[in-house]
Amino acid sequence: MAEIGDISRFSSAEKLSAYLCAAPTVDASGRRMHIGGLSRRGRKRTYRSLLQALQHVIGNTPAFADYLARKRRGKQVCKVRAAIVRKTIVAIFYILKNKEIYRNANMALFDRKLKEINRLSLQAA
Question: Which residues of the chain are under the pLDDT cut of 70?
């Protein structure tokens, strides 16, 4: 949230991805188009944090694990990781934009964590 700020600043998930260094560079001229590596412009810290949290995201979200299995076929590991980070950013965009809970969330785990947060906030007050 500290890196993104107000989500209404971004009109699309693609723009948020570009802001967080998760969008590829595109070189287009006439009928030729080349999609390159990740853009080096933007907020690298959030991208790196999501990259570090990748195993947790894949291990706890079946939808991401399935996406990983589909993407792995014939691709380099670094490109697959970048694709999953971008997919995570897109999910974050829609969660914040629509003010909803992630649709593939483990609700039992979510409720347990929410209770723990509430308990800790009451203790701090």
Answer: 1-2, 22-26, 34-44, 125
- The label of the residue with tokens 């967080």 reads 20
Q: What pLDDT is stored for residue 42 in this prediction?
A: 61
Rounded to whole angstroms, the Cα distance separating 125 from 118 reads 11
Looking up tokens 């990740």 gives 38
Tokens of 115: 């209770």
Q: How far apart are CA 44 and CA 20, in angstroms?
A: 6
Residue 41 CA to residue 22 CA, distance in Å, equals 9
A 10 A CB-CB count for 74 gives: 5
Asked whether the beta carbons of 80 and 71 are under 8 A apart, the reply is yes
* 3-state SS assignment for residue 61: coil
pLDDT above 70 as % of the chain: 85
The residue type found at 85 is V
Name every residue whose Cβ is closer than 8 Å to that of residue 72 and which is 6 or more positions away in sequence.
80
Tell me what pLDDT residue 116 has: 92
